[in-house]
Amino acid sequence: MRYSKTHKQQTHQRIVGMAARRFRREGIAGVGVSDLMQSLELTHGGFYAHFTSKQQLILEALRAGFAESAAHWARVSARAGKDGALRAMVERYLSPLHRDTPERGCMVPTLAPEMPRQRGEVRHAFTEGLREFVAQTAEHMPGETPQQRAAQAQMLLAGLAGTMLLARAVDDPAWSDALLALGRRFFSDPETLKRVAGDSAHMPPRR
């Protein structure tokens, strides 16, 4: 049976979307092509009608995941308004829901630990996605200059991702909840971020 171009595009998007979710939940190494395709009720051989390799799928899944997150945080910020955007982002990011559903959440705490072991183009795609996330977040920082806001956004995202990584890692539910609560209190305070100077901020332009 021959399928239309639209059907092929939809199937392609389904594969990328499922891969982005499962990579966040199980890690890149934990998701095989055969298992991924079977979960979509597609054949292993059909994978190569859409991708030349798993490497290409990883690249597309990273970009799709970062784009999904960017759209999500844009909606959160818009609903909260200028004065409430920072607090809303911190509370959503460091929530039990985000902790318990990594497949629907941010790429950074789930996939950053894997990047040093990935090939250059995958690591570069992650870097570019993170760069865009920093730029988006910097719009809501309290700094007076672009350099200060960039530095504050970098430290905020590092703190949020690190807190989430630890909250997911420990096997003590009460401690995990406490880590999230402490993080929400600490990072939602603009005075915490204002102490981050921007003179040494390094945010090279996109290549």
**Globular, elongated, flat, extended or rod-shaped: what is the shape?**
globular
What value does the Rg take, in angstroms? 19 Å
CATH class of the domain at 61-194: Mainly Alpha
CATH architecture term of the domain at 61-194: Orthogonal Bundle
Indicate the low-confidence ranges by residue numbers: none
CATH topology of the domain at 61-194: Tetracycline Repressor, domain 2
N- and C-termini, Cα separation: 42 Å
Describe this structure as you would to a colleague.
The protein is globular. The chain is mainly alpha-helical and about 210 residues long. Helix content is about 70%, strand content about 0%. It has 9 helices and no strands. The protein has a domain at about 60-195: Tetracycline Repressor, domain 2 (Orthogonal Bundle). Helix 1 crosses helix 3 (about 55-95) and helix 3 (about 55-95) runs parallel beside helix 6. It starts with a helix and ends in a 13-residue tail after the last helix.
Quick structural gist:
With 207 residues, this protein is mainly alpha-helical. 69% of the residues lie in helices and 0% in strands. It is globular and about 55 Å long.
